[in-house]
């Protein structure tokens, strides 16, 4: 029986939710026993990475066929975009792909247009958070909505990782609700809650006292994630709980601003900035509370990761965050851009060990809804439901 050939175009293979989602989908369909011999899945990506770190080496280590296309860049560049469109079209036509499944904004538009030109039978796109958001100017928002409409006109189905993304697409007139399929972004749950080194050893590595309460965040130090709001929240927490320690995992263009703000506030000695790390399960296991200060999101994968670790969560009401965090059950949702409110909920958890444990256990129970296995099962079902009518 002929294998189903699938190509996943994506703009950048940075360490991030969309990229890990794409990598796991390709890996599972290619290599898991339940799909043995059924799929031949490959990825095409642009060459750029960034301060978030690169997934290129991990994709290659997992044995996923990968093509790096130099013209596929994140920035708008008419000459490069046209060359990328032409190369993608040729690649899809020559590869005789049955399915093109695109990700991210730039590759989402170019990939779907190229697939249409190449006559690919089934064209799918996953929205990992829209390219537009309410912080944009009206003109910029209209431009990005228009691009999304072009991409969707060329596609057959659109996956959203949150119901809020579906609602946003409908509200902007991109497609009606029936066009969207909700498939939550999945993580490898078995890596979380089972650290390879003990929390005590991790705290020792980070220079944190063993008896301290630790609030942690795994984030990108960029405007979207509002790390300076997090610093302000930390200042408020320390005024009430001065023995608390904080760990911020990640990097980004705002790191110098974060370091400066911590130094100015005189709290840098109780806030550990780890930079980029891949041992996230071990780091999370050393936390007592997880916090996220984002202004907008798709579905942040760090929230299910924290849930699987058994951590109570305090995060902003940023789109898909509310689909992972159930208010009062496994954490608290607070208003975006209100760091004092964020701090007050963190303090509530720090003062109440029983509440921390109950919310953490609730999150652990709910985490399987976000498993990679369930995500890929649903993607496989979508492919098989739509593909026969187009081959």
Write a structural description.
The protein is an alpha/beta fold and 391 residues long. It has two domains: 4-186 and 371-390, Glycogen Phosphorylase B (Rossmann fold, 3-Layer(aba) Sandwich), CATH 3.40.50.2000; 189-368, Glycogen Phosphorylase B (Rossmann fold, 3-Layer(aba) Sandwich), CATH 3.40.50. It has 15 helices and 13 strands. The strands form two sheets. It has a seven-stranded parallel beta sheet with strand order 3-2-1-4-5-6-7, with helices on both faces. The protein has a six-stranded parallel beta sheet with strand order 10-9-8-11-12-13, sandwiched between helices. α1 packs across α15 (372-386) and α8 (227-240) packs parallel to α9. The chain is globular. It starts with a strand and ends in a 5-residue tail after the last helix. The relative contact order is 0.12. The model has no long low-confidence stretch (mean pLDDT 93).
Helix and strand topology:
Layout: E1 4-10, H1 17-31, E2 39-45, H2 56-61, E3 66-68, H3 78-95, E4 99-103, H4 105-118, E5 122-127, H5 138-154, E6 157-160, H6 163-171, E7 180-182, H7 199-206, E8 214-218, H8 227-240, E9 245-249, H9 255-265, E10 271-275, H10 280-285, E11 289-292, H11 302-309, E12 313-316, H12 321-324, E13 331-334, H13 339-350, H14 353-366, H15 372-386
Parallel strand pairs: 1-2, 1-4, 2-3, 4-5, 5-6, 6-7, 8-9, 8-11, 9-10, 11-12, 12-13
Helix pairs in contact: 1-15, 3-4, 4-5, 8-9, 8-13, 11-14
């Amino acid at each position: 029986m002929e294998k189903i050939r699938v190509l996943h175009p994506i703009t950048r293979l940075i360490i991030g939710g969309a990229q890990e989602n794409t990598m796991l989908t390709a890996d599972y369909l290619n290599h898991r026993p339940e799909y043995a011999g059924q799929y031949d899945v490959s990825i095409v990506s642009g060459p750029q990475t960034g301060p978030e770190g690169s997934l290129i080496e991990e994709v290659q280590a997992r044995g996923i066929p990968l093509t790096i296309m130099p013209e596929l860049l994140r920035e708008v560049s008419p000459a490069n975009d046209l060359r990328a469109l032409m190369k993608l079209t040729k690649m899809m036509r020559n590869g005789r792909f049955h399915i093109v499944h695109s990700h991210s904004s730039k590759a989402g538009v170019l990939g779907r247009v190229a697939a249409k030109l190449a006559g690919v039978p089934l064209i799918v796109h996953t929205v990992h958070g829209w390219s537009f958001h309410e912080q944009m100017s009206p003109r910029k928002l209209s431009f990005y909505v228009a691009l999304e409409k072009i991409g969707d006109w060329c596609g057959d189905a659109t996956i959203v990782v949150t119901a809020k993304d579906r609602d946003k697409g409908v509200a902007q007139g991109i497609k009606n609700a029936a066009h969207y399929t909700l498939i939550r972004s999945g993580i490898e749950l078995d890596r979380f809650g089972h650290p390879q080194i003990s929390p005590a050893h991790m705290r020792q590595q980070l220079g944190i006292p063993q008896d301290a309460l630790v609030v942690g965040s795994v984030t990108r130090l960029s405007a979207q994630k509002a790390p300076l709001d997090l610093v302000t929240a930390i200042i408020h927490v320390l005024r009430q709980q001065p023995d608390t320690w904080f760990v911020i995992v990640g990097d980004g263009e705002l790191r110098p601003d974060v370091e400066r703000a911590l130094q100015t506030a005189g709290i840098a000695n109780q806030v550990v900035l780890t930079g980029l790390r891949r041992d996230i399960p071990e780091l999370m296991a050393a936390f007592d509370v997880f916090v996220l200060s984002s202004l907008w999101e798709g579905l942040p994968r760090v929230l299910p990761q924290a849930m699987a670790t058994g951590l109570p969560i305090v995060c902003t009401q940023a789109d898909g965050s509310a689909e992972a965090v159930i208010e009062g059950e496994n954490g608290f949702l607070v208003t975006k851009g209100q760091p004092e409110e964020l701090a007050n909920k963190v303090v509530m958890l720090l003062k109440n060990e029983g509440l921390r444990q109950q919310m953490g256990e609730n999150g652990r129970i709910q985490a399987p809804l976000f498993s990679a296995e369930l995500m890929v099962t649903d993607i496989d079902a979508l492919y098989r439901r739509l593909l026969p009518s187009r081959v």
